[in-house]
């Protein structure tokens, strides 16, 4: 189906680690809604805890729930699902699809993820990065670990959540 010359999909699957959720993620989700009716969000690397993955699944899910509520997307995001890491692309794909259910298109800029879904026959929406020089997750995490300057890279309404998560996080405060 097309709408104003744009192909429209019913259900998009947006996968990310959200370590943390930043304005680049926000931009990509907003842009995605031009192409999809509803979204399923997959939170990747569930169960991995280290300096690059210091937020738990529950913390990241809570962040996303706050974003969904503040942005008025309750009717657009159908569910948030945990995605475990597997060192086998087929197992990872099968687990991701089992968690998500029916999806029509995959949304994202991670070429590893895109390659796996494309090989399985799924279309990919590559909508591009938004100010990656500011909003790349690795840069945001580095600023968080160094103690400042990250707050303006996140939606302001989730910054208080992150302060609490950082204060109580052993992986960061070692």
UniProtKB/TrEMBL annotation:
Q: Which residues form a coiled coil?
A: none
Q: Which Gene3D superfamilies is this protein grouped with? A: HUPs
Q: Which GO terms describe its molecular function?
A: nucleotidyltransferase activity
Cytidyltransferase-like domain boundaries: 13-72
The alphabetized UniProt keywords are: Nucleotidyltransferase, Transferase
Which InterPro entries has this protein been placed in? Cyt_trans-like, Rossmann-like_a/b/a_fold
Its domain of life? Bacteria
Pfam families given for it? Answer: CTP_transf_like (PF01467)
Return the NCBIfam families for the record. Answer: cyt_tran_rel (TIGR00125)
Q: What is the protein named? A: Cytidyltransferase-like domain-containing protein
């Amino acid at each position: 189906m097309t709408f104003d010359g744009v192909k429209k999909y019913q259900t998009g699957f947006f996968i990310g680690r959200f370590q943390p959720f930043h304005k680049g993620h926000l931009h990509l989700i907003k842009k995605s809604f031009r192409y999809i009716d509803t979204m399923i969000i997959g939170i990747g690397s569930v169960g991995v805890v280290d300096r690059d993955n210091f937020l738990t699944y529950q913390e990241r899910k809570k962040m996303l729930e706050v974003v969904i509520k503040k942005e008025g997307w309750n009717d657009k995001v159908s569910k948030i699902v945990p995605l475990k890491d597997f060192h086998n692309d087929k197992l990872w794909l099968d687990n991701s699809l089992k968690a998500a259910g029916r999806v029509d298109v995959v949304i994202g800029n991670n070429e590893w993820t895109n390659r796996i879904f494309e090989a399985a026959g799924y279309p990919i929406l590559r909508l591009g990065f938004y100010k990656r020089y500011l909003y790349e997750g690795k840069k945001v995490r580095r600023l968080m670990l160094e103690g400042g300057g990250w707050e303006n890279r996140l939606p302001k309404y989730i910054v208080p959540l992150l302060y609490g998560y950082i204060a109580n996080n052993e992986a960061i405060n070692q």
